[in-house]
Amino acid sequence: MPDAANDPGTAGLLFGAAGIYAAFLYYGSLMEDVFAFKSADGEQFQQAWFLQAIEALANVAVGLVGMLIQGPTSGLPKDLFAVSGLTQVAAKVCTTKALAVGLSFPVATLAKSAKMAPVMAGSLVLGGASYSLREYLQVLAIILGTVLVSMKGKSSSGSSTLFGVLYICGSLALDGLTGGVQSRLKAKQKEKGVVAKPYDFMFWTNLFMMLVAVVVSTGLGETFSGWAFVMAHPAILTKVLLFAACSAFGQSFIFYTISNYGPLKVAGITTTRKIFSVLLSIFLKGHKLSLLNWAGIAVGSIGIAGELLPKGKKTDKKS
């Protein structure tokens, strides 16, 4: 867990950005490796709930240390943390399931970058905030880019790709629910006059994510089969443990950067990281792309980069 830079200057910002980039670029690569792994008899790792339980456990451990250092906050609305944990872990499982059934990492990453779409849709349906033309175009660019990258001249696993797309759509829908729950969480905190510190969020959210993942994983038999699989294949066990560690330390660097520089800086760092994750996967994992696919990467990246532009004030619709 990073503890450097009490002086929030350029060096500290570079420290935080480097930590986020290193942790999550490697995190994405490891996630792809875990679901691409094949044993000698052709068996693949499919236990997405088990993987999420391990990841959440690592985050709970780091979050607990950070929370104890900064001092825990009392009176937090734990019920909403529980709901947020449920929707977030389900969204992450849908993403990993998409990779498990064969959807490529670049497509999954671009598609997940469009999670603002269900949030916007929910706000519009409920009569909430209005959006600028640029924000609509940004979402459309990401969606169009994802569609173009998904197009392949030859595909031997069309049904798998279809299931992968459905899983990603489920993940996006759950992201929308998470956004709503987190808005209620902030409002509830305001009512109670409490403010959760960064590591409070990390600990409580991941604690409930872990509890949900353990229950579901055990109920589906993934806990025992997943444990047996990773113990039988030390190579994938190492990748799973590194994957969980990258998640925990990556989140810690995010909270460090938020605390010292605010969420806007973090948004810029994580936005560009998504683009580099896609490019890194393409070059390191041997994804073969046509000109049309590359056009999709370009269009999607422009849409993602749109998050870096200053946003105008949203106006609320009043009845």
TrEMBL record:
Subcellular location as annotated: Membrane
Keyword Nucleotide-binding attached: no
Lineage top rank: taxon: Eukaryota
Membrane topology: Multi-pass membrane protein
Main subcellular localisation: membrane
Leader peptide range in chain numbering: none
GO MF term list: UDP-galactose transmembrane transporter activity; UDP-glucose transmembrane transporter activity
GO cellular component: endoplasmic reticulum membrane; Golgi membrane
TM spans (from-to): 12-28, 49-69, 162-181, 201-220, 240-259
PANTHER family: SOLUTE CARRIER FAMILY 35 MEMBER B, SUGAR PHOSPHATE TRANSPORTER DOMAIN-CONTAINING PROTEIN
The name this protein goes by in its record: Solute carrier family 35
Species assigned in the record: Amphidinium carterae
Lineage: Eukaryota, Sar, Alveolata, Dinophyceae, Amphidiniales
